[in-house]
Amino acid sequence: MEESATRRVRQEVGHIGNFSVLLSPTPRGARLARLLATEQLRSWGLPQDPAAHIVAELANNAATHGKVPGRSFRLLLYVIGATLRIEVTDTRGDRLPDPRQVTSDNESGRGLALVEALADRWGVAPGLHPRKTVWAELTLPAPESPKPEVPHPGPTCAPHELPTGEKAPHQAPPLPPAGQTHSRE
């Protein structure tokens, strides 16, 4: 089965695995989260945007606000039906996200506003103490059905008539009459 057909079948039945990775709560870990998510989405044949932007914002928040020295944050991507779910779990369950009203004066604090604008749904789920998970969901586009080939108007080739007395193309040469031999000269 061709790769694109395999992807289409996986999307139709929702048979895509999950991707989970622990990352350090640093700017480098946040960048790596976006790069790994982008590559994973590409390998699944799913659109990379806006999911990559959402991952970048949630991972950056985990590295900035959910940081506890010596504890990692987890990025989890999975597909259920036609929904891509992005989860970022950190170990600062005591610090819940605080979406702020964005103004032109703010130098920071736009991350959750961006997540809210890009995601179809998002929220926060408490985890085992001291964890929390910030999640976002995107509805995936319906897989494209193969397009039927459109017939071209008119004949596909000109009618072929053999000139009189000539053999048909790809016809074997005639055999010599029985009993007659050819010289090898």
Sum this structure up briefly.
By secondary structure, the protein is an alpha+beta fold. The protein is built from 4 helices and 5 strands.
Write up this protein:
With 185 residues, this protein is of the alpha+beta class. It contains four helices and five strands. Helix 2 runs antiparallel to helix 3 (51-64) and helix 3 (51-64) runs antiparallel to helix 4 (111-118). The two termini are 56 Å apart. 22% of the residues are buried.
Task: List its traits.
185 residues, alpha+beta
SS field, number of helical segments: 4
Strand-residue proportion: 15-25%
Low-confidence stretches: 8-13
Number of separate strands: 5
Helix content: 25-40%
Topology diagram in text:
Elements: H1 3-13, E1 18-23, H2 27-44, H3 51-64, E2 73-80, E3 83-90, H4 111-118, E4 121-126, E5 132-139
Antiparallel strand pairs: 1-2, 2-3, 3-5, 4-5
